[in-house]
Amino acid sequence: MRPLLPVLVATLMLTAACTQQTGTGGAKVEAFSDLYKNGTVIAVCDPTYCPAGRYAEMVISHLELAKPKQGQMLRANIATNDPNVRAVLDKVMAGEVDAGFVYLTDALHENNSVQIIEIPREYAPLPQYGASITRYSENPDSARLFIKYLTSKEGQALLQKYGFTPGIQLPEPFAYGNFSTGAITVFAASSLTESFTDIAAEFENKTGIQVTIGFASSGILRQKIEAGAPADVYATASLRHSEILMEQNLIEEESVFARNHLVVVSQR
């Protein structure tokens, strides 16, 4: 088995999503301050497995430090512990809750069906995404080439297309030699579904290397790798999960490649 060479893949800023009028609490959320009003019902992801939930916790903690009363009120309004961002966003759009924390890229994917409201900069964390070759990779050359494509000029452009801010200041054009490599399996965070589907298709077109992608929360994917699941690349929405795997010598280091924003959204 060849040495692993991970590269940190993307920084993604979280968003808070909220309904306009019809949530369980009946609250009308039009600004971040509405999140800590009495009766507002808020959905979040499970922070144990879903990085978006951990980033939401950071927002609440930052608010509690700056404005203890408001922070405590926001925390008291948390009503769910969902498995992923998609579940939170679906509840917001269906009016089952008044608000929820989601990624900006997921909100943008709804094609203007939600109204976006910024979260104050002083409370917003900076989520980061990373891609690594796993210790169990059977085709590390193909995995390394896939990560090279992610961080290339072409890969960065595709990520930007889906709402990510490029993390590589001067990405180089993708180049590769004419050598035979095997198919790869990529474990990727759920919030990368649209962008990685596109990226994998373009990568296959350029290299002829088949890519199979399994999407789930970063924590669930981390546990699968710990159990020996046969993945070649791990693309996570949280450096914390990468650090845990690196401590176990299951992946190696990483490199930032994209950023996003934390916002509040409401139904239109």
Describe the structure.
This protein has 268 residues and is of the alpha/beta class. The protein has 2 domains: 7-12 and 127-259, D-Maltodextrin-Binding Protein, domain 2; 14-126 and 263-267, D-Maltodextrin-Binding Protein, domain 2 (3-Layer(aba) Sandwich). Helix content is 34%, strand content 19%. The chain has 9 helices and 12 strands. It has helices at residues 51-66, 68-76, 85-93, 104-108, 140-150, 153-161, 193-207, 218-226, 239-247; strands spanning 7-10, 14-18, 42-43, 99-103, 114-118, 129-133, 165-166, 184-189, 211-216, 233-236, 258-259, 263-267. The strands form 3 sheets. Strands 1-6-10-8-9 form a 5-stranded mixed β-sheet. α7 links the parallel β8 (184-189) and β9. The protein starts with 6 loop residues before the first strand and ends with a strand. Residues 1-9 have low confidence and may be disordered.
Index terms:
single chain; 268 residues; alpha/beta; D-Maltodextrin-Binding Protein, domain 2; 5-stranded mixed β-sheet; 9 helices; 12 strands; disordered N terminus
Q: Give the SSE order as H and E letters.
A: EEEHHHEHEEHHEEHEHEHEE
Total number of domains: 2
How many E strands?
A: 12
CATH fold title of the largest domain = D-Maltodextrin-Binding Protein, domain 2
| Physical arrangement of strands within the biggest beta sheet | 1-6-10-8-9
What is the rounded Rg?
Answer: 19 Å
Level-2 CATH architecture of the largest domain: 3-Layer(aba) Sandwich
Spatial gap, N to C terminus: 52 Å
Helix content: 25-40%
| Low-pLDDT residue intervals, each spanning 5 or more residues | 1-9
Question: What is the number of helical segments per DSSP (H or I, 4+ residues)?
Answer: 9
Overall shape: it is elongated
- CATH class of the largest domain, please? Alpha Beta
- Mean pLDDT, nearest integer? 87
Q: Structural class of the secondary structure composition? A: alpha/beta
Largest sheet descriptor: 5 strands, mixed
> How much strand?
15-25%
